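User: I'm curious whether this sequence folds into something compact or stays loose and floppy. Could you predict its structure so I can see for myself?
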Amino acid sequence: WLGIVLCIAGLTLFGSYQGRFLADKHFVLSQPSDTLARLGHHFVVGYRSQAEIEQLIEKRAIAGIYLTRRNIGGKSIAEIKGAIAHLQSLRQETRQPPLWVSTDQEGGIVSRLSPPLAPLPPLAQIVDSTAAGDRQAQVQAYAETHGRELANLGINLNFAPVVDLDHGQLNPDDRLSQIFRRAIASDSAIVSAVAQTYCQTLMSFGVHCTLKHFPGLGRVVADTHLTPAQLATPVETLRQSDWIPFHPEQMADGAFTMLGHATVTALDPDYPASFSHKIVAGLLRQTWQHDGVLITDDFSMGAVYYSKAGVLTATRKALNSGVDLILIAYDPALYYPIMASLIRAEQTGQLAPGPLKLSRDRLRRYQTKRPTPDRASLNRSAKPNRSPDAIRGNASPAEKANSSPTDLIKIGHYDFP
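Assistant: Here's the prediction. I'll summarize afterward.
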């Protein structure tokens, strides 16, 4: 009997959650389009259902989409390009600015669109294997490959580069962050220079870069994908090292900054940086005078979900503090309860109009920054006649002799992950 009782209780609880979700979804989709547009331009969302994401676009309920393997599995470049163009055409019909079409194409272990895009090594491999005098040219060639391929698909926002410093932090329970495998270097000057070159090159193709993950995950032991995490380093140490690549003086024009979910215990022991008023409004917007676009890391992560605020309150706190975009990538279903909560917060006067207006202005300004790459730039450094062996790293001596710097990245000059 106990088993039956527990089973009934579980089904009842699931039904309650499911009923609440469906009620939130209905509430959101029944809102006037002006309401959805006003709040929706703060959201970049992943998706599993093509019909569902089309509905959100048609209702002006989001600002952008996030693409990963589940959206491209088995599709050719032409098919992915066509799908993105279709979504942008739906967006154009609503008379809204183009969608932010984003992905994680860092190189190395985080290369969400490879294949079909070219698999590249992490940027750290270029730093480690290239003389200082040749580094900028190699990074530029690397970024040209990313920029050309992403722009060709229709992607205009890449969540790269990782500018967390490599402090060699190893944790056997860190299954997903693994910053030591993704960071560019341990030297903040090198990281800043590489990031500037990468971002400037990407932007020449009409693709915004993203500096991530402020306040820096290189010293963080816990995995923010799964659990809350603390950054317990003194502020002065962070200022002199980890925060240098994120400072506005180091940023390339048009760069986004991604806010990670680590809690900076010396500044705000209560809330992660991604929705901490003390860090976003205080440190970044006021002290640093940071006027670039701030986007959160995925709000589906455990560090937000299991925070003392919870994901709904965290969203309101983030926007009220000066965050521009909330990313909901892994679990797109979270969008509906989050948006429902935000609509109710606006109705009850819990959203601060000042930060929201400044955010609208920033997002509008960034939309106008992006150049439209011409055909020549999309074809720059492209070598369509390279053999399959050359792409895998087994190029013939003749192919190596005739290679451009971009090709050297794709051939045997670096090892692929």
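Summary: Residues 281 and 287 are 9 Å apart (CA to CA). The two ends are 53 Å apart (CA to CA).
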